[in-house]
Design brief:
The protein is built from 6 helices and 4 strands. It has about 210 residues and is of the alpha+beta class. A 4-stranded antiparallel β-sheet has the order 2-1-3-4, with no helix packed on it. Strand 3 and strand 4 form a beta hairpin. The longest helix is centred in the last third of the chain and has 53 residues. About 10% of the residues are buried.
Length: about 210
């Protein structure tokens, strides 16, 4: 049965303008569309192929993943108790290194968002120029061009929101580091007094 299933013909199914289309051959205009591959003998789906991401989508996904990593690192650090802070960081340099890595992630996100904004804005301007040229020439603006303009405009607004968020996170990180460093120094000083017999004797004498 396994051999028979493997040798069965493959069907391709994809969406075309809201309609579900299935065929035993994949036409060129459907190669870059999301589709399901179905075993014609069993009728079961054997694979799902996603549509390839655009450059802007890939960059946005990378920025979102980096932001998620930074947020997880921040959550882990905040969740650490005072004792955990002392156990995890033997020196101020180690603590500084963690915040430096987080700051670098945010800086990378900011650079990516700025690059995407410039790229998307240039592409949107070019599309709007083409659309206005067609209108001035008395030609209709085709639906595909209108769809591209709407998509680029939406992505531009999303990247602008990301840039604002990254800028806010970077400013908040600086304040968080200052507070954490002050708490770490206070904990270190308190720990040193508890483990230093001379300090304890001096304190007892003064009392």
């Amino acid at each position: 049965p396994a051999v028979a299933q493997q040798s069965a013909k493959k069907l391709y199914c994809w969406n075309d303008k809201g309609n579900r289309v299935c065929s035993d051959a994949l036409p060129p205009d459907a190669v870059n569309r999301a589709r399901d591959e179905i075993n014609s003998k069993s009728g079961m789906r054997t694979a799902s192929v996603a549509a390839p991401q655009t450059e802007a989508e890939r960059a946005a996904a990378q920025a979102a993943a980096a932001q998620a990593d930074a947020q997880q690192a921040a959550a882990r650090l905040k969740a650490s108790s005072d004792q955990g802070l002392l156990q995890n960081f033997g020196s101020e340099e180690q603590l500084q290194r963690v915040f430096t890595e987080r700051r670098q992630l945010l800086e990378d996100n900011l650079r990516t968002a700025r690059f995407n904004l410039v790229s998307l804005r240039g592409g949107l301007i070019a599309l709007l120029d083409q659309a206005s040229g067609r209108e001035l020439a008395g030609k209709p603006v085709v639906e595909q061009m209108q769809s591209d303009i709407r998509a680029r405009h939406a992505e531009l607004a999303r990247q602008q929101a990301l840039l604002v968020g990254f800028t806010r996170d970077r400013a908040a990180l600086d304040g968080e580091f200052a507070e954490t460093l002050a708490r770490y120094r206070a904990l270190k000083a308190g720990s040193a007094m508890q483990t230093d017999p001379t300090s304890q004797a001096t304190t007892t004498t003064k009392q």
